[in-house]
Design goal:
The protein is of the alpha+beta class. 35% of the residues lie in helices and 19% in strands. It contains 31 helices and 33 strands. Strands 14-13-10-11-12-15-16 form a seven-stranded antiparallel sheet, with helices on both faces. A seven-stranded antiparallel sheet has the order 31-30-27-28-29-32-33, sandwiched between helices. A six-stranded mixed sheet has the order 17-18-21-20-19-22, sandwiched between helices. Strand 30 and strand 31 form a beta hairpin. Helix 5 crosses helix 6, helix 7 crosses helix 8 and helix 26 packs across helix 27. The longest helix is centred in the N-terminal third of the chain and has 17 residues. It is globular and about 75 Å long. It starts with 8 loop residues before the first strand and ends with a helix. 57% of the residues are buried. It is an enzyme of class 6 (ligase). Its EC number is 6.3.4.16. One of its GO terms (molecular function) is carbamoyl-phosphate synthase (glutamine-hydrolyzing) activity.
Length: 939
């Protein structure tokens, strides 16, 4: 059936600010859906309050509404635009809940707007635990023994009927919020109360706990002819009991029998057909008894999910793009496979490789947090790796995490504490995967590990084999490792760093040189959706160690953009936004734009964003070999946050050109001590400071500069390790703690400017001219990390003199650092005197906010300046902001109710929202400003 020609204008609802459980996978899905609809000549409007996303960029939609996600905002849009249909399936639970609320208020009927991609009744059936349970019984799909409860008394009766252990699942919540396991009767009352309060309908499902069972997810698509295809089957490495967002996952399923898979398939299709007649995407979760392969349904989500982004990147099948076209009437067989360009979209992907996803946690930001994993999601991001085998992909994923690991162990960071290891295996946390390997190294039997973790034996055997390989490797020296054995190590995912550590007394470079002598080279394979049955037209690659290289190097001029790796606090979606604009600008300047990144949630890893995508760890060995293959004109590191910046020195040492600001000048700004010396030379005020390498030196410096002092390490992002201390005793503790986690790092001791205001500027410099793209005044005072502060653009209470000094110092520093591209500077203002706190010659988290507020593509401009293709004078920059824009941080403290929520110099927010106000009499602004006054007076 051709598309529904009555739909000419569609509203897509976004997911709002990034929070734990709802991250940038919806930015990816929403952006892909919007571009897919625009291909059909449909006018697309988007509502989303997140300024850091590509989804809210005018390159994606015809009309972008940066408004709070409320029914009032929806009505405002419907008054202004002639909207024919709303697509609520691309914005996670937030969008679905808003769609339901608007439906209940009669808004869609009032404006004659059709809901597409799902029907509201389907949402009700899947989110209401009792309706879902009854539906599964009606269609003959197995479910766990359970009972619904709308009151404390009903919950107690359900527990008595079912028995312990139990699961409590609140209705209509995101990422397991309010849910959890209850193992014993004494803990039940508190858990039940928590679940009832978390549910907006005061409803929970009290369910039999199938702990230790295996967990699987299926991603489905269905069209209006009721054709259904399975896009991807994902198996959880971790058994039931850990939220899927916190689980290591693998595709395709590794331990499924064919019979069990076919049964699961049939049940998933039956479930999707039973919840309504909508056309679009769906995610179904199952649990499987490892003893007899009994299958029970856990839940079904009639929308794109966190796993949809993963499945799209894993298979190359653009789920959101196709789902959007199905929502406007197309059938699967009428659409083209986006990878092969010859087959139809009614074609189930086939994988001739394995993908592994590992979640990324940030427990270091939540001091005192309960790190044990359960039904409530706690991960802040994830990485995905592709390999020919499970173990190769697993090691590559471990290298991608940005936690200092060189793979799965064999890097000097192993634990040798058996008691700690066994506790970790029984009480899973972020390190359990590594502790499984550590347990094998200490001789713990496989069966003992299986019994305590319930991880499938097949996975454990794969990890155990690594220990055997390492034992064999230690028999050799670098110059006498047999070539076949060396090749086996690389095919098992071992990095050169791991091999050098295992051998001892050799460097990573020596291992690299030796394997090159032996002709052991990394080759690149194409992700093609069809196991090479049909030729692929899309250059999307992963690496392995075989003979044939499928990545054909062109003779065009090339630019490599280094991505930012997994999302974490301090380095989020704003850097992906920057990378996407960097790719676009490089292509506009005539370069072949090459992307390297390992984050499956992002737009930058969409196969059609770059001319060539390498889905690889942003890890030195992988980056180096891609560069040696492609031989680019240079590498852009300014856009990928600290992840990319950390590689600048290695790139420089390799003779690779850094596009934009040089490594030496970036390093000068990063080195807190050297930077303060530069400020002194430029006669720019700065807080008194000193540098220390141990606690004794730190105490001496602190007494010289005067308490209170800000203690911070060099070369960090997101305020990692920063603290404010007021005496020698606290300082000694802070320094010892820092040097334990960051050995060898310099410690900077700054006099802390008590009761100072904070502000920041972002600039672009082309080597001659400096353009201040925005100056922002913070609501919170100095001492609160800028990422956790509300920022107002332009400043609302800073005097003309202060703003003039901010501009003067910005221009001075841009020229002194010989900046080519972006520069972010943070200021403290006290008694009308402006002090510079720090400068970062790279993309910052505030540039997307400024770009959206002023409606100017600043990253695109900055990239063209970096490339030397344009001067600032070539651009006619016109700002469109009327009134003020406010950037407001959003936190996920609900996931960690036990932690200290007080804000300080170390960043804790997971996302941000933007709000526009016409003047300073706005009630929301007055409330924020009263907080500022309170902060300044109370400090």
């Amino acid at each position: 059936m051709p598309r529904n020609t009555s739909i000419n204008s569609v509203l897509i609802i976004g997911s709002g600010p990034i929070v734990i459980g709802q991250a940038c996978e919806f930015d990816y899905s929403g952006s892909q859906a919007a571009l897919s609809l625009k291909e059909e000549g449909i006018r697309v409007s988007i509502i989303n309050s997140n300024p850091a996303t590509i989804m809210t960029d005018n390159i994606v939609a015809d009309n972008v509404y940066l408004l709070p996600l409320t029914c009032e905002s929806i009505e405002q849009i419907l008054e202004e635009q002639q909207i024919d249909a709303v697509l609520p399936t691309m914005g996670g639970q937030t969008a679905l809940n808003l769609c339901i609320e608007a439906s209940n208020r009669g808004i869609w009927d009032k404006y004659n707007v059709k809901v597409i991609g799902v029907d509201v009744a389907a949402i009700e059936k899947t989110e209401n635990r009792e309706e879902f349970r009854q539906l599964m019984i009606d269609i003959g799909v197995g479910i766990a023994n359970s009972k619904i409860a709308n009151s404390f008394l009903e919950g107690k009766e359900a527990a008595q009927l079912i028995g312990f252990p139990l699961v409590i699942r609140p209705s209509y919540t995101l990422a397991g919020t309010g849910g959890g396991f209850v193992h014993k009767k004494e803990d039940f009352d508190a858990a039940l109360n928590r679940g009832l309060h978390a549910s907006p309908t005061h409803e929970v499902l009290v369910e039999q706990a199938v702990l230790g069972w295996k967990e699987f997810e299926l991603e489905l698509l269905r069209d209006s002819n009721d054709n259904v295809i399975i896009i991807c089957t994902i198996e959880n490495f971790d058994p039931m009991g850990i939220h899927t967002g916190d689980s290591i996952t693998v595709a395709p399923g590794m331990t499924l029998s064919d019979k069990c898979y076919q049964d699961m398939r049939n049940q998933a299709i039956l479930m999707m057909r039973s919840i309504g007649t909508f056309a679009g995407g769906c995610n179904v979760q199952f649990s499987v008894n490892p003893e007899n392969e009994e299958i029970i349904a856990i839940e079904i989500n009639p929308r794109v999910s966190r796993s949809s982004a993963l499945a799209s990147k894993a298979t190359g099948y653009p789920i959101a793009k196709i789902a959007a076209k199905l929502a406007i009437g197309y059938n699967l067989d009428e659409l083209q496979n986006q990878i092969t360009k010859t087959t139809s979209a009614y074609f189930e992907p086939t994988l001739d490789y394995v993908i592994v996803k590992i979640p990324r946690f940030n427990f270091d930001k939540f001091k005192g947090a309960n790190k044990e994993l359960g039904l409530q999601m706690k991960a802040v991001g994830e990485v995905m790796a592709i390999g020919r085998t499970f173990i190769e992909a697993l090691q590559k994923a471990a290298q991608s995490l940005e936690t200092g690991r060189a793979g799965l162990g064999a890097d000097g960071r192993q634990s040798r504490d058996l008691e700690e290891i066994m506790y970790s295996l029984e009480h899973p946390s972020a390190d359990r995967l590594f502790h499984v390997k550590d347990a094998f190294e200490l001789g713990v039997p496989l069966e003992s590990i299986r019994k305590v973790t319930h991880i499938d034996k097949w996975f454990l055997v794969q990890i155990q084999e690594l220990v055997q390989l390492e034992t064999e490797l230690r028999r050799y020296q670098l110059n006498n490792i047999p070539r076949d054995f060396f090749l086996t190590l690389k095919q098992k995912g071992y990095s050169d760093v791991q091999i050098s550590w295992l051998l001892g007394n050799v460097t990573e470079d020596q291992v690299y040189d030796r394997r090159k002598e032996l002709g052991i080279n990394r080759v690149y394979k194409m992700v093609d959706t069809c196991a090479a049955e049909f030729p692929a037209q899309t250059p999307y690659y992963y690496s392995t160690f075989e003979d044939e290289n499928e990545s054909v190097v062109s003779d065009r001029k090339k630019i490599v953009v280094l991505g930012s790796g997994p999302n974490r606090i301090g380095q989020g979606i704003e850097f992906d936004y920057s990378c996407v604009h960097g790719l676009s600008a490089a292509k506009e300047c005539g370069y072949e734009a090459i992307m390297i990144n390992c984050n499956p949630e992002t737009v930058s890893t969409d196969f059609n964003m770059a001319d060539k995508l390498y889905f690889e760890p942003v890890f030195w060995e992988h980056v180096r070999e891609i560069i040696e293959l492609e031989k680019p004109e240079g590498v852009i590191v300014q856009l990928g946050g600290q992840t990319a910046l950390k590689m600048a020195k290695q790139l420089e040492d390799l003779g690779v050109k850094i596009i934009g600001t040089s490594f030496a000048n970036m390093d000068l700004a990063e080195d807190r001590g050297s930077f303060s010396d530069l400020l002194k030379e430029l006669d720019i005020p700065y807080p008194k400071y000193g540098v220390a390498t141990n606690a004794e030196e730190a105490i001496r410096v602190a007494n010289e500069v005067g308490y209170p002092v800000l203690v911070r390490p060099s070369y960090v992002l997101g305020g990692q390790g920063m603290s404010i201390v007021i005496n020698d005793e606290d300082l000694e503790k802070a320094v010892v703690k820092l040097l334990r986690s960051l050995p060898g790092n310099q410690i900077l001791i700054d006099h802390f400017l008590d009761r100072a205001e904070e502000a920041e500027s972002d600039s672009i410099c082309d080597g001659e001219d400096v353009h201040i793209i925005g100056m922002m005044e913070h609501i919170e005072p100095a001492g609160i990390h800028s990422g956790d502060s509300s920022a107002v653009l332009p400043p609302f209470s800073l005097s003309e003199s202060v703003q003039a000094h901010m501009e003067e110092y910005s221009k001075k520093l841009a020229k002194a650092l010989n900046v080519r591209g972006l520069l972010n500077i943070q200021f403290a203002i006290k008694d009308e005197k402006v002090y510079v706190i720090e400068a970062n010659p790279r993309a910052s988290r505030t540039v997307p906010f400024i770009a959206k507020a002023y409606d100017v593509p600043y990253i695109n401009i900055a990239t063209k300046v970096m490339l030397g293709a344009k001067k600032l004078s070539d651009f006619n920059i016109v700002r469109k902001l009327e009134g003020y824009a406010i950037k407001e941080p959003v936190f996920s403290f609900s996931k960690f109710p036990e932690v200290d929520k007080q804000l300080g110099p170390e960043m804790k927010s997971t996302g941000e929202a933007i709000r526009f106000i016409k003047d300073l009499n706005d009630p929301h602004f007055r409330e924020l400003y009263s907080q500022k006054s309170m902060f300044l007076n109370a400090q």
